[in-house]
Design brief:
Strand order of the largest sheet of chain A: 2-1-3-4-5-11
Mean pLDDT of chain A: 94
Shape of chain A: elongated
Low-confidence stretches of chain A: none
Number of strands of chain A: 12
Oligomer: homodimer
Number of domains of chain A: 3
CATH topology of the largest domain in chain A: Rossmann fold
Radius of gyration of chain A: 27 Å
Helix content of chain A: 40-55%
CATH architecture of the largest domain in chain A: 3-Layer(aba) Sandwich
Order of helices and strands of chain A: HHHHEHEHEHEEHEHEHHEHEEHEE
Chain lengths: ~325, ~325
DNA sequence: ATGAAAGCGCTAACAG
DNA sequence: CTGTTAGCGCTTTCAT
């Protein structure tokens, strides 16, 4: 356990030159003679000199670190986002400091503060469900720290954003069902006061409209969890004879519905085709595997980091804020024909 | 976009005192008069002064940051680990810098270096599958940076460790099958050259032995993915009539087997009971829900951070290295009676 | 071509 | 009780 890392000063002392010479030699400053440069460089290599990123950051007023605030890490979509962010950031010479808000406003505030204290160059934020007040995020922007919001964006703050095109995803999913021959399509939806509930409902309606199918509000059920499907089991079964397709707002709801139907003798997809939304790992292991809308978390993560770094590295240019809309794609499997 | 954050120096200048007075007042140093203290504190609050963590770290030679190197973030077990780490670290005043090796040795080396450059106080590492050489990690230890290995530990380095008790998990799972009345238990296993393959196999054998059931090597199949189950479908079905239980090395294999059997008229759990291992989110949504061994990623993460912080905060005491063995528990669902 | 000095923001030993 | 000074590790004028 040697206590200290070797520093430029150490090298300078040992080699009998000044710290500035070492610093310059190390970064190939033209003023330094080849001789000195080689001497310093080979010695530095020998003693495994590594610059202290802390000192560098303090000096340069730039940490090359991005702060991430995410509601929860254990979630297929969010962990995919993190993975995409990490991969791109790494490639661009940035590192990530990651905080989990656990959907807790108070913790989100503390996290934001901590990241600012660490002087991250920018922030990547998906706001917690309990956040109503955005002072902490405004505060970051006022301190010159740009934010890119992703997925759970904040409308009160003008900023770069990356979101999923829920409308389009739902439209694609529903259209697929129609193309499979379905006409009476049940929509298991999230509440409309949630953005995804509303948008996916609208996409569903749009697809029907495009094919001149009337929207039957009896076929739109507020039902967005596995548990709720189980509770509504009877109602679902009472509708089953008259429907030929189901579009669910997420995969677990789709799967639960599929199972209830199967247990009662319905064949998927022969009697009823089913499409989900999200494409977590669960969609591939059901029987039949679930057709669903792929949500591209990895890509959203990359895109968010791309926007952020672009802004960080062009501080002079007054870039207008962009909203990147990532269009999900249909992942056709065997729950639809 | 104000460029700069306010500093102690700024406050000192404005208030007409010295920076050290401000510094002391802020941290309730006893030498400072109440008057000055209140003056400074209220002013600091008014201008939202926040200490620069970078400067502090440089000064104190302590960053309060833990570096994490993990093979992949998008994996239920690993993301649970991260979540547990983050939660505990947060509570103890530490932050996490997270790097993903993507199972790539080269990247693991670079990541380690980057974290050392950032002067993280300690390292949490699960080694990549492709890592054969441990110089980079030895190097960290030589630099006085303690490492806690978790899950994929490194035997060449003497260090703190947190692992799952695979043997015990397998024993519990198999015993559960036996208690459900099974006697002819098929084990779908990972290759024995992998530690988990070996340990879980041994646990399976131990349970049989404890109940005086002979081990039948024909009932131990190297088969540890969904795809492999599909490939071995016929073989599996040929064994099916003579077995009454299955213990699979992971959930997806268990589920695939369950599905193949169901499609061929077997009733789960009536004809055959099935137990998996790992308890990702998929286990709850199958029909019937899968009994499995819960792997406690969250707890492993917390434990790893606990060990690391304990070591960091008792640098003087020569603590012996500990290996924490987290025993998984049976999660009984409906795939077993 | 090299060195001395100042400073990034903060703290702590030493003076007074 | 408060200020001065030095220094954490590094870069970058400004001298020489």
């Amino acid at each position: 356990m040697k206590p200290a890392h070797i520093t430029i000063k150490d090298i300078a002392r040992i080699l009998g030159v000044s710290p500035s010479t070492v610093s310059r030699a190390l970064k190939d400053h033209p003023d330094i003679s080849e001789e000195t440069r080689n001497l310093v460089k080979s010695f530095a290599e020998k003693v495994k000199y590594r610059p202290n990123a802390l000192a560098l950051s303090l000096r340069k007023q730039k940490t090359n670190t991005l702060g991430l605030i995410i509601p929860e890490i254990v979630h297929h979509f969010f962990s995919s986002v993190i993975s995409g962010m990490e991969d791109l950031a790494y490639g661009e010479g940035y590192h990530m400091m990651i905080c989990q808000s656990n959907e807790n406003y108070y913790r989100e505030v503390i996290n934001t503060q901590a990241l600012l204290d660490h002087r991250v160059d920018g922030l990547l934020v998906s706001v917690s469900k309990t956040t109503r007040d955005y002072k902490h995020l405004h505060n970051a922007i006022e301190n010159g720290i740009p934010i890119v919001f992703f997925d759970r964006i904040c409308n009160e703050i003008d900023s770069d954003r990356v979101i999923t095109d829920d409308f389009e995803g739902a439209r694609i999913a529903t259209t697929h069902l129609i193309e499979c021959g379905a006409r009476k399509i049940l929509h298991l939806s999230a509440p409309r006061h949630l953005l995804i509930g509303l948008r996916r409902y609208e996409g569903y309606c749009q697809a029907l409209k495009n094919h001149n199918i009337d929207i039957d509000e009896k076929l739109v059920l507020k039902c967005d969890t596995r548990e709720e499907v189980m509770t509504m089991r009877q109602h679902l079964l009472s509708l089953a004879p008259e429907i030929d397709g189901i579009f669910a707002v997420n995969d677990s709801t789709a799967i639960a519905a599929m199972q209830v139907l199967q247990e009662n003798g319905y064949k998927i997809p022969d009697d009823i085709s089913v499409v989900g939304f999200g494409d977590g790992p669960i969609a591939t292991i059901t029987s039949p595997p679930l057709s669903t809308v792929e949500q591209k978390g990895y890509e959203i993560g990359r895109e968010a980091v791309r926007l952020l770094i672009q802004r960080l590295e062009n501080p002079t240019v007054q870039l207008g804020f962009q909203t990147k809309i990532v269009t999900p794609t249909l992942k056709k499997r065997q729950s639809t024909r």
